[in-house]
Amino acid sequence: MEAKCLKINLLFCFSIIYRDISSNYFSGELPATLAKLTTLLEFRIEDNQFSGKIPDYIQNWTSITKLMIQGSGLKGPIPSGISRLRNLTDLRISDLEGPEDAPMPQLNSMTKLHTLVLRNCNISGKLHDYLGTMTSLKHL
What we know:
It is found in: Membrane. InterPro entries: Leu-rich_rpt, LRR_dom_sf, LRR_Rcpt-Like_S/T_Kinase. It is a single-pass type I membrane protein. By secondary structure, this protein is mainly beta. 6% of the residues lie in helices and 18% in strands. Strands 1-3-5-6-7 form a five-stranded parallel sheet, with no helix packed on it. Strands 2-4 form a two-stranded parallel sheet.
């Protein structure tokens, strides 16, 4: 199934709060209509075959609490606007293709973060000191 089918199905469903399309064979770029899902609380797209970069529009999902982009086929780097997602409690991004030496995203505004997984994302440099002061972070 191509992402085009997903676009048609989501065209008029802007009040969705949970979207799990994990472990399918979706391909193509994520549809731009997903940008309108501003009430989204949870988004999971693990184990698919998408292409293109992680879209910048995810920074507009400011209500989201769980974001899981693992083994999705998407490319990095992780958008810098991810720091706007201050309600995140669970952030899991892994297996990104794309440029090496990507900077570590600024996550210090995510004070509710409980679980952080950034595996195989081509991030380089030092870990930020603020990670040690994030008191709600339990899984790193």
